[in-house]
Structures are given as C-alpha cells and as structure tokens.
Amino acid sequence: LTYVEIIAMNKCPNQAKQLSPSVSGSNIVCWYNFIGFDKAGCAHAYYALFNLTDEEQPLTFNARLAVETAGAEKAAADSAFEAQAPVIRDLWARKDLGSSVKTVLAPHSCCAFRV
After folding, report:
1. Run means of pLDDT, 10 residues per run, the chain, 115 residues
2. pLDDT score for 78
3. Angle at 108 between CA 62 and CA 86, to 5 degrees
4. Which of 29, 30, 31, 36 minimizes the C-alpha distance to 13?
5. What pTM was estimated for this model as a whole?
6. Which one, of 70, 57, 40, lies nearest residue 108 by Cα?
7. CA 95/CA 88 separation, integer angstroms
8. Considering Cα of 24, then 28, then 34, then 38, what sign does the dihedral take?
9. What are phi and psi of 75, to 5 degrees?
10. CATH placement of domain 4-114
C-alpha cells in the first residue's frame, strides 16, 4: 500500500467510532477517528464510509456536520467556519474536495476522507 494518507489514517492511535446514519445516509456505514484540534479550534478527523449493499448508494458528506460530529463544540465549529471552512480531503484520490461532497458509492465500495 503506497497511499501515505491511508496509512496515516490506519495508524491513528485514537479509537474509531461508528456514526449514526444521519451523517452519511441510511444505507452507508460511517466510521470516524478523531485526530484533534488545530490552532483555530477546528476539529479534524478521519472518516471511512462503506456501502454494504448490492446497489449503488448516493452519498452527501458535509464538512460542517462532520466537524461538529467529530467533537467540536458548536461555538468552536462556527468560529472555525467564519475563519475558513474545513476542507474535505479524499484520501484515495489525494485531492481536496471543498466543504461538501456529493457522489455515488458503488456496491460494496468505500471512500476515505480527512476533514
């Protein structure tokens, strides 16, 4: 495996947790691993989203909801967004996607993000 960012996600020492379906959609399983806060008080975390079904599933992933779910208090999340909106990074594609992602997950596939 040569994807440095995927390896870093795998080595993150914190305990990963499964999120409620409201974050990713009812047919997509989402796990996150909290990384910590930056100097601006914005929370950062890894997210792995899995389509466990036999059909394509639409996915909408929002950075604001992800940051709040990762443990940022609402005030910290709001102030971070006023300064600069968190960016969703696609760890497989190695590119920044902006503050919201809309895509379709193929059957039994996954995606990995860092916010």
Report:
1. 83 80 70 79 83 92 74 53 75 93 94 93
2. 54
3. 15
4. 36
5. 0.78
6. 57
7. 9
8. negative
9. -60, -40
10. 2.60.40.1180
pLDDT at position 57 = 93
Q: Tokens 């300064």 identify what position?
A: 83
Residue 12 and residue 32 in contact, taking contact as beta carbons nearer than 8 Å: no
Q: How many residues does the chain have?
A: 115
Task: For tokens 């100097």, name the residue.
Answer: 39
SS (H, E, C) the chain: CCCHHHHHHHHCCCCCEECCHHHHCCCEEEEEEEEEECCCCCEEEEEEEEECCCCCEEEEEEHHHHHHHCCCCHHHHHHHHHHCCCCEEECCCCEEEECEEEEEECCCCEEEEEC
